[in-house]
Specification:
The complex is a heterodimer.
Chain A (H helix, E strand, L loop, with lengths): L1 H34 L2 E2 L8 E2 L3 H6 L9 H27 L8 H15 L9 H20 L1 H5 L2 H18 L5 H11 L1 H33 L4 H13 L2 H11 L6 H8 L14 H26 L3 H10 L3 H29 L3 H6 L14 H11 L3 H27 L7
Antiparallel strand pairs in A: 1-2
Helix pairs in contact in A: 3-4, 3-7, 4-5, 8-9, 9-13, 9-15, 9-17, 10-13, 13-15, 15-18, 17-18
Chain B lengths: L1 H34 L3 H4 L14 E8 L15 H9 L11 E9 L13 E7 L7 E2 L5 H13 L5 H10 L6 H14 L7 H10 L7 H4 L11 H17 L2 H27 L2 E2 L4 E5 L5 E6 L4 E7 L2 E6 L11 E7 L2 H8 L1 H8 L3 H32 L5 H10 L5 H14 L6 H5 L6 H12 L3 H9 L4 H12 L1 H17 L2 H6 L8 H12 L3 H33 L3
Antiparallel strand pairs in B: 1-2, 1-10, 2-9, 3-6, 3-10, 4-5, 6-7, 7-8, 8-9
The chains are: A mainly alpha, B alpha+beta.
């Protein structure tokens, strides 16, 4: 009786927060997923079930200038690419692990294959082809992952064969270049463009953020004096709102009067047209984001560094390890759980880039040619301006899927390294 | 051996730290710096630190409006009434009476453009004569002398065609000396395409047959600013005299014409200068009156009757003195400010930015929403974290993982569905939409659970034995013990709510419900690129969070460390 009463009390404590999570997180997540199969152009109340068409529409390829034969040839080459890349990645992840888990290759191989083969899909007959492809890929990856023992120890071999294949492919098909292929599609399909832009942003933003914030964390840990000052200084940008901060950088990036171009002029660099160049859109946004967040992640790194037992360093010092060695053999491995956390959080954060673009480019997705159209911008635009709830939900789920897959890969790759218990 | 290396290492650490700190704070400092600048300073290159807004005085470059044409009303600076008035007469209507001197303020020295003359403080206007002292003027104009001079210069017949035309047209003003003087100088020196425009006049002179051999002597006069001065013209006349003596008879006529042009001007100019019998003894000092175009006369040098401003012009009405006496004067303008006026100058952009958008409403909304969200968060998150940490019930850990998993879902993914749900509740454009969905945060729950975990279970058991309810234990023991983490959580949710943008943008569409970030974004769109005001607005939207952060920083950081994100 008393036990039951305790249970009830426990649930009562959960109720307020849980109600909020259910109403505004769990239920919307389900509802969004449900909506992504409906066409809501007329009204949400009279949504029409359209199956996977929203997703198909998002990834439509448009006209691609290939004959079916060329497309088939390219598909084959690209499929080989995808396979080798994914097996190489898998081999790298699984290196030293005893039990092979089939989940990862089953995800990675089809994803890479799709990325590579997808550009020529439309020529080869669209959805049917995708279906067949998935079956083939599923079968092959199952078959190969069972023999993973061999690939695990030959990652380098695979990377080399990848390079060789690339050279061959380059000579066979002159337009095998992945970048060009995607560019072709992205010209006709703004969602593919948004994925492209978002990845571009993430690839610039996340590694630099991690590197700079780790440096900031190490500095905050090791400086003997003025620690508090530097801590406050590094953290200050994070406190400001993104709108205000984007506005500030809008001023700093100004072509004629901006201080950034002025500083560059000290080094004899001609002024850069930061805000009016399609190729610089994402780097510009990345500079802003790195500036805004490095102090925050630096503080997280610092908290991790503080938690490393000082005895390790003392022992290393007795052994005569220099500071570089101490970093490589003590700090880096012991910090890996924090690094993992920061990577995941900054990755999720980077995929949500929106406000910076919105403010810097005056509510437009970049200066021209959709060069600043990120995935969240696409979702916002489809939902808020075009009122296509179903399509926006589908796009949102693609974003969620990408984040989930990347996080999962991250979990798997670091699983064995994040076992230190500090 | 070891010590110096360590010192070197620390030196590098500090260099790196300083570079990073400059990277982090530099932009913020630049933002605040820009927010105090004048428009002209913002749009100047290379950018400079500091601003003349902080100075107790500033020199403004200005020029006297010398022609009638220049005194025409600039429609953009007129009131509607004045504009209609000027349209109803004709386009050549002059704003000023013959006794009015107009001074065009170009801007603070080094910066061109309006907006560098705040409408406050005291203006000190120094009218300088050609001799370097203060300018002179006439109080007893002699009309007979004027008539004789005019008769004399009108009788000269050998003139260039230009000057002949001028003299003919001037003859209509012989009854109105003031108008005559004004037009005379307008045609000879200051108007459109005047006779003694430096380059033109010298080039014309060199084109005269026989003058080419004097090129070396004449050409240097091309160098200089403005029209040719009286002294220069006298020198030129000397050269022409000597040219005349050597020229062939056929060329003589042409050279004589130019010589006479100069003589006519010099003759009249001498008369004009001779009429000036009084000298200003010091600068004219005028003070701005708040909310008025009128200027208060502090020191009128006994000739100023009234003064007013319009746009970037200052108009000075004289008592019984015509403004034509100051045509040849240079003007130097200095504005002086007392302490309060300097302060007002300094924060000018803040005041204008605040007044040009409903920032008061945005501010209230931001504070209300952020505080309400934070309070609810603390209550709900503490309860949930406590349940996860200290209470036992079936499914506890599963629910915990379920809650933690929400951290992985970016809220933008849920935006569409959230909007529809909130819409169905009728919460669009209400505070509920901004507060309730954010009143529980998974990350804060996670931090707090970690912290509660570090409180020994024995303590909880002891409290239970003493008869304390779990509720009482939570708020009187557990929360005070975890204060740094609670403050960290509070600060994080406050920051999140204060800086939230996309959510507010979508869930509200009226000014009354919007918060600072969205308000600021609207302000950017509405105001265009006035970066000093934009930076001022950006600065005052940040102040509360910056203050909160600085104030709670100690707890915040220790909360971060205690939470032990592992």
């Amino acid at each position: 009786m008393n036990k039951k009463r305790n249970y009830v009390i426990g649930y009562l404590y959960l109720i307020p927060a849980l109600v909020i999570f259910i109403l505004f997180t769990y239920w919307p997540a389900i509802y969004s997923f449900y909506l992504s199969f409906f066409n809501t152009t007329t009204s949400v109340g009279h949504a029409i079930f359209v199956g996977l068409s929203n997703y198909a529409y998002l990834f439509r390829t448009g006209e691609i200038p290939y004959s079916p034969y060329m497309a088939f040839e390219y598909s084959l080459i690209r499929f080989s690419f995808a396979f080798i890349i994914s097996v190489a990645i898998f081999g790298w992840i699984e290196k030293g692990r005893k039990i092979s888990k089939n989940l990862i290759p089953l995800l990675i191989v089809p994803i890479f294959a799709l990325i590579f083969v997808y550009p020529s899909l439309s020529v080869l007959g669209g959805n049917v082809y995708i279906f067949i492809l998935w079956i083939i890929i599923g079968f092959l990856s199952y078959f190969f992952t069972r023999k993973m023992e061999f690939y695990k120890s030959h990652t380098i071999l695979f990377l080399l064969s990848l390079l060789g294949l690339y050279i061959v492919a380059f000579y066979i098909g002159k337009r095998i270049d992945l970048y060009l292929l995607f560019f072709d599609i992205a010209q006709n399909n703004s969602f593919v463009m948004s994925i492209w832009n978002t990845f571009y942003f993430v690839i610039i933003d996340v590694p630099l953020t991690i590197a700079i914030s780790l440096a900031a964390g190490l500095l905050m840990k090791n400086l003997p004096f003025f620690k508090a000052f530097f801590r406050t200084a590094f953290f200050a940008p994070y406190v400001a709102s993104i709108v205000a901060v984007s506005l500030l950088w809008l001023w700093m990036f100004n072509y004629h009067y901006g201080i950034l171009n002025y500083i560059l002029s000290w080094f004899g660099i001609p002024p850069i047209n930061w805000l009016n160049s399609a190729s610089l859109t994402m780097p510009t946004v990345a500079i802003l984001s790195i500036w805004e967040y490095f102090g925050y992640y630096g503080l997280i790194f610092l908290s991790g560094l503080q938690n490393i037992d000082q005895e390790y360093y003392e022992a290393a010092e007795i052994e005569g390890a220099n500071s570089f060695q101490r970093f490589v053999y003590i700090t880096w491995p012991l910090l890996s759980p924090i690094t993992f956390f920061v990577i995941v959080v900054s990755l999720i954060n980077a995929f949500q880039v929106f406000t910076q673009v919105y403010v810097l480019y005056n509510q437009m997705p970049g200066p021209y040619a959709n060069s600043g159209l990120t995935m969240v911008f696409y979702i916002y635009n489809t939902f808020y301006n075009e009122q296509q709830m179903g399509l926006a939900s589908a796009a949102a789920y693609v974003l969620l899927g990408i984040i989930m897959v990347l996080t999962l890969i991250q979990f798997r790759t670091t699983e064995k390294r994040v076992e230190y218990n500090i | 051996m070891k010590k110096p290396r360590k010192k070197l290492l620390y030196f590098f650490y500090y260099v790196a730290a300083v570079i990073l700190a400059i990277f982090a704070i530099g932009p913020l400092v630049w933002m605040v710096d820009t927010s105090f600048k004048t428009n002209a300073e913002v749009l100047s290159y290379p950018p400079k630190w500091g601003t003349i807004n902080a100075m107790p005085s500033r020199t403004l470059s200005a020029e006297i409006v010398k022609t009638r044409a220049g005194q025409n009303a600039n429609p953009s600076s007129l009131s509607l009434e004045a504009l209609l008035g000027s349209l109803s007469t004709n386009q050549q209507t002059s704003l000023s009476s013959p006794d009015t001197l107009a001074i065009h303020v170009l801007g603070a020295s080094g910066y061109r453009g309006t907006g560098t003359m705040p409408r406050r403080g005291i203006l000190s206007i120094e009218l300088m004569g050609e001799d370097g002292g203060f300018a002179s003027y006439s109080t007893n104009f002699s009309t007979p002398d004027f008539n004789s001079v005019v008769a004399k210069i009108s009788s000269v017949s050998t003139l260039t065609d230009d000057v002949r035309g001028i003299m003919n047209s001037l003859s209509q003003y012989t009854s109105d000396p003031q108008e005559y003087i004004l037009n005379f100088y307008d045609d000879f020196l200051y108007g459109n395409n005047p006779v003694f425009a430096r380059i033109n006049f010298i080039s014309n002179l060199l084109n005269v047959n026989g003058m080419m051999k004097f090129q070396d002597e004449i050409s240097p006069f091309k160098k200089g600013v403005g029209p040719l001065s009286a002294a220069e013209l006298k020198e030129l006349a000397g050269i022409l005299q000597s040219a005349l003596s050597t020229a062939s008879p056929s060329d003589k006529m042409e050279i004589e014409k130019y010589l006479n042009d100069i003589d006519v001007y010099l003759e009249f100019n001498e008369f004009y200068q001779s009429q000036k019998n009084k000298k200003l003894s010091g600068p004219i000092k005028l003070a701005f009156i708040p909310n008025s175009n009128q200027l208060k006369i502090i020191d009128g040098q006994s000739i100023v009757e009234s003064a007013y401003t319009s746009g970037d012009q200052i108009y000075i009405n004289f008592k019984n003195v015509s403004f034509v006496w100051f045509l040849n004067s240079d003007v130097s303008l200095t504005a002086h400010y007392n302490f309060w006026e300097v302060l007002a100058n300094f924060f000018d952009n803040y005041v204008s930015a605040w007044n040009s958008a409903p920032f008061g409403i945005y501010y209230f909304n931001s504070i209300f929403v952020a505080v309400a969200t934070t309070v609810l968060n603390i209550i709900f998150d503490v309860m949930m974290a406590f349940a996860f940490s200290k209470l036992t019930f079936p499914g506890r850990d599963k629910i915990f993982i379920g809650v933690i998993a929400t951290m992985m879902i970016p809220y933008q993914v849920l935006l569409v569905a959230d909007y529809l749900i909130i819409h169905s509740f009728g919460w669009i454009n209400t505070y509920y939409a901004l507060i309730i969905p954010w009143s529980a945060t998974a990350f804060v729950i996670f931090l707090m659970r970690q912290s509660f975990n570090s409180i020994p279970n024995d303590l909880y058991d002891a409290a239970k034995i003493d008869g304390a309810s779990s509720w009482r234990f939570l708020w009187t023991i557990a929360v005070p013990l975890s204060m740094p983490v609670v403050i960290t959580g509070a600060l994080l949710t406050f920051l999140g709510s204060w800086n939230s943008f996309l959510w507010v943008l979508i869930m509200t569409d009226t000014t009354n419900m919007r918060t600072l970030p969205v308000g600021l974004q609207n302000f950017i769109i509405d105001s265009g690129a006035i970066f000093n005001q934009l930076m001022a607005a950006a600065t005052f939207t940040m102040i509360p969070v910056v203050v909160a952060f600085l104030f709670f920083q100690k707890y915040f950081v220790s909360g971060f460390f205690r939470s032990g994100i592992k």
